[in-house]
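Standup notes
- DV: blocked on the single-chain target, sequence here:
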Amino acid sequence: MANVIKSINFGYARDNLLSDTARMAAIEATKFFKDSFRKGGFTDSSFQQWASKQSPLGGKKLMYNTGTLMQSVRKFEESNERVVVGSDSAYSEIHNEGGTITVTAQMKRYFWAQYYKLSGKKTKTKRGKASNSRANQRTNAKAEFCKRMALMKVGSKIKIPKRQFIGESAVLMAELDRQLGIKINEYWEKS
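- DV (later): unblocked, structure below
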């Protein structure tokens, strides 16, 4: 029996490999960046956990109150030359890179409204006094936070810590290299 040397069909690979790998890279990058929200941090060459939140408002998971920011991560461009995955949320940049925001009159109105809404939700004892329950304590902490925010002067600065969820990642690139190797082997088998 003679040895058969298998060769790859370069025409088939040329026509399909680039578009398939671009699609695969876009899907994997989107999943990788959305996974940052589930893990509570970003992985470049190692995992960097986000700074803890200072606000008693919001959900149990950091940066995942409504899921809007995570759902805004999507593919913007996919071609044979490049793949662009990003977020089009208005506040994604400040969260991803950190920085300062300026207190506006609109922010103050929002926090006053939240304060009045939260401070009215108190349970009472049978004698009509405010209960010392955990729910009241949580409501009080939330209401007091909103009051502190509402009392800030217009033009004051608030520091937002960096909580990167998207960017360059050595781990992502290694995974894309691994999957590219698998894809090339598939093309080798098809030819």
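- Follow-up: Residues 101-159 form one domain.
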